[in-house]
Target: MmcQ/YjbR family DNA-binding protein
Amino acid sequence: MARNVVPLRFTTEGSGAGLWIGRRHGLWYGVRVRRTTIPDAVPDSWLTLLMAHPVMYSDDDPGLAELRAICLAFPGAEERVSHGRPTFRCGKIFAAFGGSEKLSPGDHRRVGSALIVKIDESEMQAIDDDPRFFVPAYYGPFGWRALDLADAGVDWDEVGELVDASYRLIAPKRRLAELEARP
Model:
């Protein structure tokens, strides 16, 4: 076992599997092992490292039902909750609902009904010049932009085009072939 690895109290009942967590080079990591003996010396504060994020959306949020209909119509698309928010994936995330805008280091503005999509580099300048769009925290540096679906006058045809473009940037070739084969 690696140095500085400490077992946590998370085990799968009866399977003998547990999760060990430790530090190496200043980073936390977890390793699944086949040991269920947990020493009492493990601080309870370490258990928070593995806790799920709280759900930060409601099914009646503005635009979520419409966004679900658009995203789940793509081949192989599925919805998963990640970090407390719905994400739409086809292997990788191609759209996310809800997020925040980074205003300055350490200062964020929460936008609970934001649509976050990947933008093609050729369209990035036009999107950045449009005041309806903003650079989302965490996603922004990787070519993603966000649009608040709670704003009055959201153009759902435009939302569909944004999601389609993002899907085409992310989806595998097999799924793109399925999309092109549709009537």
